[in-house]
Amino acid sequence: MIIFLHGIDGYRLKQARDDLIARYRAKHPSGLNISMIYGADRGAIDSLEHALKSLSFFKEVRLVVFNNILDADHAAVLGLLERYHKPDDKECVILATHSDPKPVKANALFSHLINPTHLVRHFELLEGAKLAAWLKREAVARGTPFTAGGLSRFLTLAGTEGWNMINNLDKLANFCVASTRPNGGPSLITATAVEELVRTDVEPNIFEFIDALGRREAEKAYALLYQELARGRDPYYILSMIAYQFRNMLVVKDSLARTTDRAVVAKKTGLHPFVIRKMQSSVSVFSLDELKTTYGRLLELELTTKNGTADLQDQLFAMALQS
After folding, report:
1. In angstroms, rounded to a whole number, what is the distance separating the alpha carbons of residues 99 and 39?
2. pLDDT digit string (tens) for 249-259?
3. Band of the pLDDT at 209, cuts 50, 70, 90?
4. CA atoms of 211 and 228, how far apart (whole Å)
5. What is the helix (H) or strand (E) element at residue 132, kind and residue range?
6. Burial class (CB in 10 A: 0-12, 13-18, 19+), 148
7. Could you tell me which residue ranges the DNA polymerase III delta subunit-like C-terminal domain spans (predicted)?
8. pLDDT tens, 152-200?
9. To which H or E segment does residue 96 belong?
10. What is the average per-residue pLDDT within 188-215?
11. What is the pLDDT of residues 270-285, one digit of tens each?
12. Residue 26 main-chain phi, psi, to 5 deg
């Protein structure tokens, strides 16, 4: 049996994949009959052959999860599937995925995977009422429902790409949960909160600010910080965004020192390949020690400002001027 999940909406695709894996683990708790393969890995073909030829422990159904299957050698994968896996095989389930913003070019492996005899789900970006309904469910799952105005504003500002929307939704949920309601009711995501935390130009400015720090461009770093504060951006939000980016940069820098393959780095760090691609220019202007030092300063700054021993806005400007 083959299950094939593919499409441009990488976040919902990952959700569906993780749900299927969780249901498999609940039914087959030994964990001995599940294989995880990544198409970009050099050993992907050998891993697939080993998984297909292996015998099951405890007479459980085997699950072979092949992530981004179209990144592997098409002919080799197709040859192994045709040789070792029959369409009516109920003892081995192959869960194959592929997510890419570019349309898939017609090829023999893709044609095999979308065969009507297989279970196939195509994940396009959601729009309109379907997108609104999905966002409502995601917000409720986080314990922070949208108000009507909050949802409308979020749909206007957050775009339609799944990973970006979820990152913004997580940010809003954390903010709203921290803002405890006096009556003990659920924390609501309002239009005001969305206006405060979700902006289409937040990430570019944060990346520019970080680049300016790395290139020792104090004047530019100061100007970018001033622009964000002049727009009414909360200093604590700016600090959290900078700290979040430096933490990711530290992880990516360390991983890139071991391999330049973005797909492998994505797997090891848990970050989306798009995020890694955007981050590489910023990472390149810092040494690993500089990233560690700066991230440590940011954590210390967060602690001292929360304790009231330092003014956060002044400290952020001091950081910009010291670059």
Report:
1. 11
2. 888 888 888 88
3. confident
4. 16
5. helix 128-141
6. exposed
7. 204-312
8. 989 878 877 787 788 889 989 988 887 755 566 668 999 888 888 886 5
9. strand 92-99
10. 77
11. 666 666 777 777 788 8
12. -65, -35
The CATH number assigned to the domain holding 287 equals: 1.20.272.10
Closest CA relative to residue 8, chosen from 114, 128, 99: 99
CB contact burial 32-45 (16+ within 10 A = b; e otherwise): ebbbebbbbbeebb
The neighbouring-strand residues paired with 92 are: 62
Mean pLDDT over each residue of the chain, to the nearest integer:
85
Task: Pinpoint the alpha helices (H) of 142-234.
Answer: 148-157, 162-178, 191-197, 202-214, 218-230
Among candidate residues 77, 102, 123, the one where a domain is terminated: 123
* 290 and 189 in a common domain: no
Partners of 6 in beta bridges: 98, 122
Domain of 26, CATH number, reads 3.40.50.300
Residue 97 belongs to domain spanning? 2-123
Q: What is the pLDDT of residue 240?
A: 76
Residue pair 211/320 in contact (Cβ under 8 Å)? The answer is no
Q: Is 66 helix (H, G, I), strand (E, B) or coil?
A: strand
CA–CA distances in Å: residue 47 to residues 40, 76, 206: 12, 12, 40
For the cut 50, the answer to whether the pLDDT of residue 201 exceeds it is no
- Give the dihedral sign, CA 212/213/216/217: positive
For residue 154, the tally of other CB atoms under 10 A from its CB is: 25
